[in-house]
Design goal:
The chain contains 8 helices and 9 strands. It is an alpha/beta fold. The strands form 2 sheets. Strands 5-4-3-6-7-9-8 form a 7-stranded mixed β-sheet, with helices on both faces. It has a two-stranded antiparallel sheet with strand order 1-2. Bound molecules: S-adenosylmethionine (SAM). S-adenosylmethionine binds next to helix 4 and helix 8. One of its GO terms (molecular function) is methyltransferase activity.
Length: 214
């Protein structure tokens, strides 16, 4: 797998990843991590977890991944790994994921998280059965609709629990909860995109989906 450390992308073998995993109680995977701020936040809160941030684009990860790889006395976080990979083709050796987050997806990741293409199956294949998930959708992707949302109308909590849950079920995911996030809920995600989008809009609507994978 391709590990991102600052400007470098280095090979991390499946055995090296397994050794890292063994030093922690479980793995939390953040797919489409962007600049990885959410990963740092979770890793600080849960030092027992190995927190893996994955994105197809490594450029935005430079600063955060360098910070995480620093010595612990300089603010480094030994329980963080950043990987460059597409959600459609997750790295060999990534397995036994105990919790998944996909926050504010766009592009092919958004399409995948709406049940189109191989993304839900690909994530499911690396998860423990019953792993909890948190997906947050930026509803402004429907206002007006971007091409990635296809024919799916803007979801609300009720339609997410029916129409979207059906798409998720086809990939073996159980979507059981859907709710709009209030400002405190959005801030608690500690992601850069929620901050950026929130500051550019008077009202910022995010739908959170929860349930289990597999
Ligand atoms: C709007 S950003 C959100 C980043 C972060 N989750 C946040 O909330 O700040 C969407 C991210 O999804 C990533 N992405 C889009 N399609 C992807 C794919 N197929 N596989 C992996 N990452 C993808 C993009 O590179 C981008 O970093």
């Amino acid at each position: 797998m391709h590990r991102v450390i600052g400007k470098r992308v280095v090979e991390l073998s499946a055995a090296e990843f397994a050794a890292l995993r063994e030093r922690h109680t479980a793995v939390l995977l953040d797919v489409g991590t962007g600049d990885g701020k959410h990963v740092l936040h979770v890793a600080r809160e849960r030092p027992d977890l190995l927190v893996v941030g994955l994105d197809a684009n490594a450029d935005a990860l430079r600063k955060t991944s360098a910070k995480a790889a620093a010595r612990a006395d300089r603010g480094g976080l030994p329980n963080v790994v950043f990987l460059r990979a597409a959600a459609e083709r997750l790295p060999d050796g990534l397995s036994d994921v105990a919790e998944v987050h996909v926050l504010m997806p766009w592009g092919s990741l958004l399409r995948g998280m709406l049940g189109e293409g191989p993304v839900l199956e690909a994530i499911s294949a690396v998860c423990r059965p019953g792993a909890p998930f948190l997906v947050t959708l930026n509803l402004h992707a429907w206002r007006p609709p971007v091409p990635e949302v296809g024919e799916l109308p803007e979801p609300d909590p009720a339609s997410a629990r029916t129409a979207l849950a059906e798409r998720y079920a086809a990939a073996g995911w159980r979507l059981t909860e859907a709710e709009y996030l209030d400002d405190a809920g959005i801030a608690a995600l500690a992601t850069s995109w929620t901050k950026r989008l929130g500051s550019s809009r008077a009202r910022f609507d995010v739908l959170a989906l929860r349930g289990t994978v597999g």
